[in-house]
Design brief:
With 183 residues, the protein is of the alpha/beta class. It has five helices and seven strands; from the N terminus they run βββααββαβαβα. 41% of the residues lie in helices and 20% in strands. The longest helix is centred in the last third of the chain and has 19 residues. It is globular, with a radius of gyration of 15 Å.
Length: 183
Amino acid sequence: MQATIGACKLELVTGDITRQATDAIVNAANSWLAGGGGVDGAIHRGGGPGIMEETQRRYPQGCPTGDAVVTGAGKLPARYVIHAVGPIWKDGQNQEESLLASAYRRSLEIAGAQQCASLAFPSLSTGAYAYPLQQAAHIALHTVAAYLRLHGQPQLVRFVLFDDRAYEAYADALTAVLSENRC
Ligand code: ADP
């Protein structure tokens, strides 16, 4: 599924984030930048040890929840990895929504600062961090669409969903976000 927002393209695909040849890919990192399973494990496995060496050297304090940092992408086809820290879902009463939106926004800002024309996101926080998928999909797409409308870049934002269930949730959320904007 694909939508046009001004001069930008917002795209949903199923697949593996590590295979994306966009200028940058986003990692679902933790605040210690310590490596983990899911997206993070796949990125460090595919990219090689240089990515972890760089995060430890440049960001020894880690990265707060809702923020992001950038490194090279080692052996992966992308040029940069933007390590974004989404919130751990508790009950929705702990700023989860604003922290998730912030993780997407900060990733987009960093991609802009690195002159990236294209960026691929996974579904932040919906794996080990247990954010309810439908809610997370809506926040992700609402935040990215608003950013693209305001800033007109990056030219391409692709969400790379790992399975059909995530793809369907994002497709429904994109339809809703696009219709909210027609009102
Ligand atoms: P978090 O800790 O932020 O929840 P996870 O990496 O555990 O991050 O999961 C985030 C989402 O990414 C989940 O929906 C998971 O199914 C998906 N995912 C896992 N591996 C990959 C991959 N290689 N490419 C794209 N998405 C992936």
